Amino acid sequence: MPGINRWTVPDYGDQSGRVAVVTGANTGIGLEVARQLAAANTEVILACRDAQRAGAALDAIRETCPRSKLAAVLLDLGSSASIEDCASRLRARWPVIDLLINNAGVMAASPGRTTDGFETDFGTNFLGHFALTGRLIDQISASRAGRIVTVSSLTHRRRSATLNFGELDTLENFDAAVAYGRSKMASMVFMVEMGRRLAARGASTLSVGAHPGGVRTSILRQQNPLVRLVYNPRLIGLTNWFTQSAAEGALPVVRAALDPETRGGDYYGPAGRRELIGPPVLVKMSQRARDAETGLRLWQLAEEMTGVRFLSGEDDHL
Question: pTM for the whole thing?
């Protein structure tokens, strides 16, 4: 597998007949997750913002997996119209979706808002995936072994990532690291709460999570020069002991998606130094992400903000 030079790619068996949607699959971790799933004979749909970059990603995967079944669909997680259109196209062509990998993410360097008017990180990393998941829940639950994988970050454990419901969508006193950490905490709370709701309904669909560790990807391109320098691939000889490639960082996500021993609520990350590098293992999440009251409140808020309601009552999608 190109780019994986330290950790063995686990063999989860032939995944022929299964369908996976990977958001943000044109680069970085998303591209490598898509590549590894395709190598296991999963049919993979790359959900990307840019058609040209999506096409380049398809070509890159086909170079290493020439017989892979691939497709691409446009998706801007900051636009409710784009999310609805993407989900509609997916539903029309794939009535059963076995895996939804909620991977796409941004780390805004300055305050801004999505097309729908939400703070960029919170609106894209959390609200966008919440809405997409809700619009595809019927197709995922139609699978006998459906999984929804939330890609999070070590930053969700920071004290500053605690969800203050009065500040989730504000641009006042903007701090890039805090905004990103809170968006990832929201994603983790979403993952756990969704698992509760699926389990309460006796659904076979699993909600699980993963984080990639310290990965050298383009998500850091807007950050300060020091951060960009530390994660620059050209300095791999100096930083290899605490950073890893996108292909290596994809391994916890792929394990969350394919490991037959995975249970709802499981969370995977690297086994090595401070979970920055290493093969994929079960790791701990912040206890704040497991708080039931926070989960209920965030779910209700997300429904209000996105207008997408699911797993909520008699008229939900299950």
Answer: 0.91
